[in-house]
User: Fold these one by one.
Assistant:
Number 1:
Amino acid sequence: MMLLEIRNLRIAFRVDRHTTVEAVKGISFSVPHNATVALVGESGSGKSVSAMAVMGLLDPAAAIIDPDSRIIFDGSAVRGKDIAMIFQEPMSSLNPVFTIGAQIAEVLKLHMGMRSAQARRRTLELLEEVGIPDPAQRIDAYPSQLSGGQQQRVMIAMAIACEPRLLIADEPTTALDVTIQKQILQLIAELQQRRGMSVLFITHDLDLAAEIADHVVVMCKGEVREAGPAKQVLTTPTDDYTRALLDCRAALATRRRAPLPASASEAPPLLEVRQLRKTFLLRDGWLRRRTFHALENVSFTLARGQTLGVVGESGSGKTTLGLTLLRLHQASGGSVLFEGRDLLAMPVREFQAYKRRMQIIFQNPYASLNPRFTVGDILLEPLRIHRIGTDDRERMAMAHSLLEKVGLPASATARYPHEFSGGQRQRIAIARCLTLRPEILVCDESVSALDVSVQAQVLNLLQDLQDELGLSYIFISHDLSVVRHMADQVMVMRHGAVVELAGTEALYGDPQHPYTRALLAAMPHHG
Amino acid sequence: MRAWRRLCADRVAMVALALLAAFLLLAALSAAGLVAADWEDEVGVSYAPPLFAGAMAASSVSSAAPAQALPDNPFDPLADDIRALRAQLASATATTGVARRATLPLGGDKWGHDVLKKTIKGGETSIVVGLVAALLAVAIGTVFGALSGYCGGVVDDFFNWFYSIFTAIPSVLMILAVAAVLQQKGVLTIVLILGLTGWTAPFRLIRAEYIKHKAREYVLAADAIGASHWRRMFHHILPNVSHVALVQLSILAVGFIKAEVILTFLGFGVPVGVVSWGSMLNEAQGELLLGRWWQLAAAATAMALLVTAFSLFTDALRDALDPKVKP
């Protein structure tokens, strides 16, 4: 007997009055007692929708569940109290105006019929259980006073408050840093063991699934492609799609090209950053101001045709570094020498010429393209500003050839960004940078928002461009395996300071700093 | 294009748009002198009742028959001239339709003006005042808001200080103060009064949108490719916040049509000899005591129709233009 059995689940969404789109196409899988099942798939695979259907959270006005679909919980229909769910964004799942204690106690009062004093005692026990330090004090804290990891712990406490038999975790660690992710995974695994409950773990990350799950269900475009014990699916996949997914990640485990010959590192650097500092003034109370050091004395060099990887957790200053290099943020001190000329000291007019030579690709391709511009406008604008090409016809021809280079049809110029998928938009953003034929590209988490298979495509594109055009990259990412794949040198940052800077082989093979070691240990290992 | 298609799918919006277009067309025709140019002709008897309420009221007003002509005085040295004048007068009344009409489609005012034509002519003034003043206010508010939100720092402080002064003074007092400074009556004066005092709401909203958008990645990307401040402000950000300005335009136009009524009522409105819905309502307060309700009814109905249509259209326009609203 299975704890949860889903048979032939079919869900369609209403687009308008006449058309519907099928999001889940007759899937079947089951969750055994006392086990963890990972539901793995890329965006749009229908994994979250299926979980919402199990919880009964789908809006009946928008979603149509086929009448032949069966969701059987322990032999009967689903009862609310037996299933709990945690979500990706703990910050938006918690109500910011109530203390965490009040929010957990509310659940206890409503579902377990407890009185206030009793509920508070139980809340303390729960906070203790999920590993919140000093629960007696933290119980009266507001969500904003906790870190992201602690907020997710609170969400977990709230989820297990009613002693559910099934916990659905929808990408619970995606918004968290790697070290925190590791802790939350451990917590979920511990709770699962101790309470003998089952966990349905939804994720896009196969490595994560490999770490936590007993069984794996791989979904793609609303269908189950493969299901079975974790070891079997992840080591000897039978389905092409699963194999492709695994290959995408496996490819990252290796360096792309051989380490550089010693002579290359002696060539004069294209970019040299010395003691770069950036401070922000924060308002602290009424009149007091506090300085926050986002960058503290960052120094490095970048040679032509090389890639510098910058890794660090959120708040480490890696994005600020990228923006400051391009003068999108005003630096507070230090110098950035581009072929010996200090970019930070030169007047705006002179810097305009250097904007052509240094470009940036942002993290979120949904935000970095102006939604009111067509792709043609987006690509022509930099050409017009820098007066490249004699007239618009010639510029348009350049735009077409660039689109071809990044793997998009020339007809894309007449369309708007929102008509493209995330990966395609990132290609458009790359094409926009290439219009200026830059020498240095700053990639700020440029593939982090993309699905694994799309990520691999964009990384390949970046590599091909580097080989073809001799570009130098400053590759900023929180994903250690992506950086290992791309970079010749890696710089580890923490709290705005450089912790370690070494060649990729050396850093991953023999990390010197304890923080680097902790980061590498927290990396989910595949297989 | 998409916004227009979404707007077309909204039936309420299309009805409102049709009504608006009709009003604008009438205003344009009357401005061109094709319609209601003869509104000042005294075609009806004084306080002629409307057609549908006519017959019974008409009898009570029919006393206005022309008086009996005096016989000629043979000793008058000017007898010939007077005879000539009389003949001229008689032929004049004959060409204007002999007698004044006892009823008019929507009734007549004190001088026998046709209220229907008067409403159309008045609409011309009111709609022009509403739209032009709203355009002025939104233009000022958008430019100030864009500068303030985009530049930040000292510029923002300056505009905020200016804004605070404007909003600290009660609006009616402000309007009266500007009216006192401008010292003359006329449509242009009203447009200036309303435009110069009404920019605060769009300023506040546009400034907030600019603060939000200037940190967006697409604006940073524009900076990275070398787009100038001006280009980023008006080429990149403005289309993305234009829905706020457009909706403000509709809201203010409605408000200003009503404000013109109030101004005229207070005596700061249009000059004598120009008709507007405001001046009609002003006249109507005395007439109402005599039981002549039709001028009030005509002006109020026209205004209610226009304002309702404009508001509904505003709502629909906001939904259609906001990229965040899914169809």
Note: The interface with chain B takes residues 16, 323, 326, 328, 352, 355-356, 359-360, 362-364, 367-372, 381-382, 385-386, 418, 429, 432-433, 435-436 of chain A (CB under 8 Å).
Number 2:
Amino acid sequence: MHSSIVAMVLAGGQGTRLGVLTEDIAKPAVPFGGKYRIIDFALSNCVNSGIYKVGVLTQYKPHKLNAHIGIGRPWDLDRKGGGVTVLQPYTYESGKAWFKGTADAIYENLDFLDEANPKYVLILSGDHIYGMDYMDMLNFHISKHAKASCACMNVPLNETFRFGIMVTDISKRIVEFQEKPQQAKSTLASLGIYIFNWDFLREVLIQDAKDESSSHDFGKDIIPKMVGEKDDIFAFEYDGYWRDVGTIYSYWESNLELIQSIPQLNLYNNSWRFYTRTEEMPPAYFGKESVCTNSLVSEGCEIHGVLNKSILFQGVQVGKGSLIQDSIILTGATIGDGVEISNAIIAENAQIGSGTKIGVGEYAENEENPGVYNSNISVIGYHAIIPENATISKNCVVHNGVKENATDNWQVPSGKCVR
Amino acid sequence: MKVLGLIFAGGRGENLGLLTTKRASAALPVAGKYRMIDFTMSNMVASDIRRVGVLTQYSPRSLIDHLGSGKEWDLDRKHGGLALLQPYMAISNKYWYRGTGDAIHQNMTFLRRSDEDYVLMASGDHIYSFNYSEMFNFHFSKGADVTFLYKELDETYNLSEYGQLETDSDGRIIRFEEKPSQPVSKKAFLGIYFLNKHLLMDLLYNTIPQSDGYDILLDVLIPSLNKLRFYAYPFDGYWRNTKKGINEYFKINMDLLNNEVRQQLFYTGNNVHTKLKDLPSPKCTGTAHVENSIVSDGCIISGRVINSIISRGVQIKAGAVVENSIVMQDTVIEEGAHVKYSIFDKECNIRTEKRLVGRKDDLLVFEKGSVI
């Protein structure tokens, strides 16, 4: 049965609300949880569910993502039959190129699916963090004789306005769809995980491609249309951990949830491992003066300072007398001596000079992009170099690749940005 | 020039006692996430050796499981790659490997069929980071027949446990003594040899096997010391041989708490590859205190850890104290237990409030799966 299903992972999104974190890489390639990247969760769920034919649809700045996926070896997806295929936008005679929407992305790869000719197609987003057995959903789909199934989760009533809400009847058939409603009739939110019968989806996509009024999106066009036409579409209720780390704050919060004594996302489950491609580094070293509580510290780290409620990715160096709390430090960042960091995200390979303070002062609205940067969290971009004794207050942004000479005195008040 | 790598991994390492009852010394876990053989394997791969034969004999299950297809070392290849050379039975042969010389002799077909012209032989239970290419270049520049790698040992080694050599000013070996009771030289042979494959085959064919087995060094090579050009190349980095005993094994692990040793082994030289376990990053909870220690992936630390090496998947519960100890994979140290100067093999369980205190010169060692 397993070979009769193909997974298509939508990994082309930018995730604009992650600011500098996704300026140069696609959202699915953003690091998460000490050693993973966000797409690892969808890929690991696929192989753990026994799905070994996976297409990954890329579009926005895919280099990091392509290098990460490679031939799929960390996920056992380097296979003779099936395995992982990276599907990038391409041109043909009529000159058409980029994927216009999620449905269009699948439509453009009809050839890929025709060749595989599966019975079912699983459509996933590469942006979400969760551990889910897709076989449970497939069994549900088959038992309902459905043409399509949509995984849903109950959300608090006051958050329904952020989601696509499904209204179901007693048999779990979806009878109404509300996109980000003010007055929700249900609390079942769509998770963007769909199973379709392939012959059915094929027809739907061909029709949708001809429809010029459509935006070619599963959530906006395909699903509402199916519900409107009273097709056999059912809601599969999922009640485990699921996160869409769409914003800087939710990214920070979801990472830090992992340090709870029993986190909702279980990374330690032997029968449901999450796989990733990592650097090969020796285990973490804690120095004589290090104090480390409520934190994750990855391989290759050398810690000489004080850590509390923080996540350190691989190869992070923390100097003597430094104090890091409520922060996320990504791979390869170097923190000097006597540095104080709180409520910050330090991106890959950033260098923080000795004596620098990050996250001090009072909150102020961000001058550049308050839609993206609107919390107490300061973000230091990839490869940024911050000199000694700088002060960076709250809700600040130091852009990717900023050098020491980017500003004169490096006293950055809350809400300001350094380019 | 293509070089064939041969790794001796068949010995038990008797001095390691309980740690090697069920595994060869080459398969002994070290430095948190590695096994001893990773270092020699990684050195070979970094020196562009693309065909590696591993000679196994004593309890090889964990070693074979660890090496797998050689994928982690990029040795899963169509041409060359990893070959596990185990003793076998045939019409003409029904012996175990009776010494290192015999081990190679029994695999003459492997030597003959490989298209490499040179052979590098090394032991699977030494820890060091070295690019052998330096030694190859030296070998050719001296017009040597056989090149040995040696190290000038300092007072932290017991000289009488090592083979010693004397060289002339050109680096040619003029004298070799195997583990003499009175030291003849500080230059200790590291068990790493480089020579032409066809020369090695000739020497093996010309050696008459002794009934109790024969050794590649003492019975095959050294008798030709005066006939052939033997040279010695110096290695001056960190090098240790775990076979020497439990105290040596303990010292190796504790040496890794020294920044200089870590830099040499892991950061300045070759990448050290090992079998991946796909575990999450280690977690320190609110009651954790970790000081001068190495902690590997998949651990959950709630107790105090001081001057210790913690392998993958270990749990140290709140109130437990681990001092100057080595804790291997998946061991659990429960609430309030206090352990000091101890080595815990894999999957041990130290029950609540248990007190296990060894001494630096009298370490406590617990076998795999012990429940205390």
Note: Helices of chain A lie at 39-48, 63-69, 102-107, 110-116, 134-143, 198-210, 218-228, 248-257.
